[in-house]
Design a protein that fits this description.
mainly beta, hypothetical protein yedk fold, five-stranded antiparallel sheet, 4 helices, 15 strands, 12% helix
Length: 220
């Protein structure tokens, strides 16, 4: 499950690469955590949105509704049946520009950050879905598939990496055509195992976090 990723390329360069409009200057974080603002390509535009669909729970002690948590990862096998994802997958698919994503590795309480990126692409696209929300404005979630062999010792799920030739099919194809793209990445990955503690706050504050400090997300 991905709860942290980087997108370090300027918005204008991203818009050019994806042939997307970027009339305003989107404000987004370079290191994106759940509830932070990230850059996505939706409906032909580079837009800033909150990472994670809001999900509400009720306190067992008080019975009051708690602040929403971010459900920032959507399992591919739940896209067409889970009410949280179904309409967005059918009607509002987007591309998430990513330069690297991180997973927690190691013993509980001593986990470190292991980063994954592509050797032949400084920037790549991950499959995403989005929807308007009352809580955070437009929000998006990553689509997750079974993890590849290179990361099997760290996590059993990974982001759905899309080849450039498949970008348009993901955003504009039929649901069946898009679903066929939800497959484990077959190429090689660059694996960067670091000593950075997983739960350490990012050293540089994002341009606009919008919601609050880094918090673990969820996968449905």
């Amino acid at each position: 499950m991905c709860n942290l990723y980087r997108m370090t390329m300027p918005a204008g360069a991203v818009a050019g690469l994806f042939r997307a409009k970027s009339d305003a200057a989107p404000n987004f974080a370079a290191e994106v955590y759940p509830k932070y603002t990230g850059l996505v390509i939706a409906e032909g535009e580079a837009r800033a949105m909150t990472w994670g669909f809001p999900r509400h729970a009720v306190s067992k002690k008080t019975g009051k509704v708690l602040k929403p948590t971010a459900t920032n990862n959507a399992r591919d096998d739940k896209l067409r049946g889970n009410p949280m994802w179904r309409d967005s997958f059918r009607d509002r698919r987007c591309l998430i520009p990513v330069t690297a994503w991180a997973e927690a590795e190691g013993q509980a309480g001593r986990m470190t950050r292991t980063w994954y990126s592509l050797p032949d692409q400084e920037l790549f696209a991950v499959a995403g879905i989005w929807r308007p929300t009352d809580e955070w404005g437009n929000a998006y979630s990553m689509v997750m598939v079974d993890g590849c062999e290179q990361m099997a010792d760290v996590h059993d799920r990974m982001p759905t990496i899309l080849a450039p030739a498949d970008w348009e099919c993901w955003t504009d194809g039929t649901p069946n055509e898009a679903f066929a793209l939800c497959r484990t990445y077959a190429g090689a990955l660059i694996v960067d195992r670091t000593d950075a503690a997983w739960f350490t706050r990012a050293s540089a504050q994002p341009a606009r976090s919008g919601i609050g400090s880094p918090t673990p997300g969820t996968l449905l």
